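Handoff note, outgoing to incoming analyst
You'll be picking up this chain. Sequence as last confirmed:
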Amino acid sequence: MEFESRSKQASDSGLNRRVFLQAGAFGGAVVSLAHWLRAEEILGSRHSSKGVVFIHLDGGPPQLDMIDLKPQAPVEIRGDFQPIATAISGLQICELLPKLASIADRVAFVRSLVGSAGAHDAFQCQSGFVAKELQSLGGRPALGSVISKLHGSTSDAAPSFVDLMQGRALVRNSARPGFLGPAYQPFRPDISQMFARELEPGMKNELARLGANHSISLKLDGAIDVDRLSDRTNLLAQFDSFRREVDAAGMMTAMDRFTQQAVGILTSGRFADALDFSKEDPRVVERYTLRSTSGVPNYTSDAAPATQKFLLARRLIDAGVRCVSLSISDFDTHSDNFPRMRHVLPIVDHGLSALITDLQERGQLNDVTIVAWGEFGRTPRVDPKSGGRHHWPQVGPAILAGGGLRGGIALGETDRTASTAIARPVHYKEVFATIYHNLGIDPHRTALTDPQGRPQHLLDEGLPIRELI
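Most recent structure output, in case you need it:
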């Protein structure tokens, strides 16, 4: 077990230093990165080279229109789409997922995901827990934050956890560090210029109330060159040396080191380069690029080129990030479900299949676990007035690949209307137990210390999915 506290020391450390830096020429990127690195080092960590990519199907994906079609059901249940054969004999999925069908031998399709909290965000898809769990202590941490705690190091070339999610998952801060505190929050590069995602009016208001700290620039300010930044760093080091004699805790020395490291990450350009597709082979960029779809997008939907989010995730993993979360919107289809699915499902199909095949060809697939899912499924019966499917927490779909998991499996079974799981229900926590297994972590023996000094195991229930490992 790993029982560590000192989180208050991390959050309190170097406040005067931080204020001083904010008044200087570093700008918010260096300050935030240095603060994060400093706090992470104080709390300690270990190392692992394995990674995770979470794909949040934002809004709740429809099980009947993806991987659990019911062609014999009445039309008001089965909907518009037909099943197609896959690379696995007897296994069929939706006609809008032909690329995934062609690599089904590398994919596990979970048709019986249960235990949804019914919450319209991505927190359960990031942690396995409902939001109220340990809420008085700050809540449970997202898996990426746990990886930052256990496996991150201030000597790493990139943060351990990067959140690329947009939409409600961003607005509702779904990838949060919980009781681990802000030292383990994800880095959120602002990707809005790369991938537009219009927010609903209510979500715009939510985001405005949260303030401006939901994203961070990971590049140098254009007005600050490397030489000037280096000079400034040396000046600050001299300033800190002057104060060390009265610094009983030795924090000023630590802050010198962390500030230098933050500058090193930013000036090396490795992490920022991961966000720059001009540094990728154009043939690879083209492989991840979808030009158009045949569907009708909602104004909140991702555009077809959002398939490149999957490339961005792979490039961040290559840069040393251990957990990447991204989102594809918008699955919240209370109206016009079928034309909207004709738009968004090809995005998932193209991007996810490109990621899986690319990682396999690069020899990385066994080291990266991929999970695509949402906060719940959608109603079996189509609303006759709106043509939509509504929220359905009783059962939902999930797609897993990589991490050494067995592919070519359709796990679980639902009843004739895909309303409930009737065989092999799979809980969110079982999926997380499987991910931890792939990372070499026993979540029932590994514990983190909460703010009251008590050990909290990473999971309180759920075993790895035996059919997949």
